[in-house]
Amino acid sequence: MTRALPLAVATALGCAAGTRPTMPYAHHASVNGLHMYYEDRGAGRPLVLLHGGGSTAQTSFGAIIPSLARTHRVIAPEQQAHGHTGDIDRPASFEQLADDTAALLAELGLDDVDVAGFSSGGVVALQLAIRHPRLVRRLIVCSSFFARAGLPAALWDGMPHATMKEMPPALRDALLAAAPAAPEKMFARQVSLMMGFHDLPEAALHGIRAKTLIVVGDADIMPVEHAAQLARLVPGAQLAVMPGSGHGTYLGSAESAVPGSPLPALTVSMFESFLAGANDGGAR
Prior knowledge:
Layout: H1 4-12, E1 26-31, E2 34-41, E3 45-50, H2 57-61, H3 65-68, E4 72-77, H4 94-107, E5 113-118, H5 120-131, E6 136-142, H6 153-158, H7 169-178, H8 183-195, H9 202-206, E7 211-217, H10 224-233, E8 238-242, H11 263-275
Parallel strand pairs: 3-4, 3-5, 5-6, 6-7, 7-8
Antiparallel strand pairs: 1-2, 2-4
Helix pairs in contact: 4-5
């Protein structure tokens, strides 16, 4: 198994849940039977950030949230069996996670938001745009996939046997800190989530009407061509390939951040430009 595969497995898999952070921007909401944790900071047009698998709001986006919160109301939920959101006796699917996100937005009284999803959070973002199109104004899909072919075959082969030992230390530490009593259970739930993934129908992707930006690193887990194919399937989508970037390096994600890298700041600038409609003649 290559060195990259444990990172890919951990990125696709889940973190855990249980504790109540005390940060002033930390909140919980009752959503579809979940006690869902979410972070809410800043002011301006709402921007919803959907973390990757094996991660939390902070491990995926902590490096860029402070900058984004200067101009946006940033809402970063943690999904079922991830981070500080507990698991419940219910199968997890990407469709369900999208519906949970929609229910959270309804709870917050929001019905016109921008959305950015990283890795498996990008699948949730795509499902949100497909299943709840009126909620999503602009969509950013970061280092994600829409078909099984977008991830290495060895990942899918190894998924049933994945263990916490394969997780990058930063993600494993976040899992243990969030749910010290039940990390293995939460990890198993995320294995089940990924094993249940099925290709998104091309017709559904063709039906997305939100202005869309697809972002991928030039040394990402998924091939650049997979991201380019997604950009061709979503009408009018833009494609950005980040140079010198692995999976999430350009976001400063905990598992692949490079100290001193200028890429996260460039990513924030790119996000801001796209969300403002600078490259398409104006907002939708």
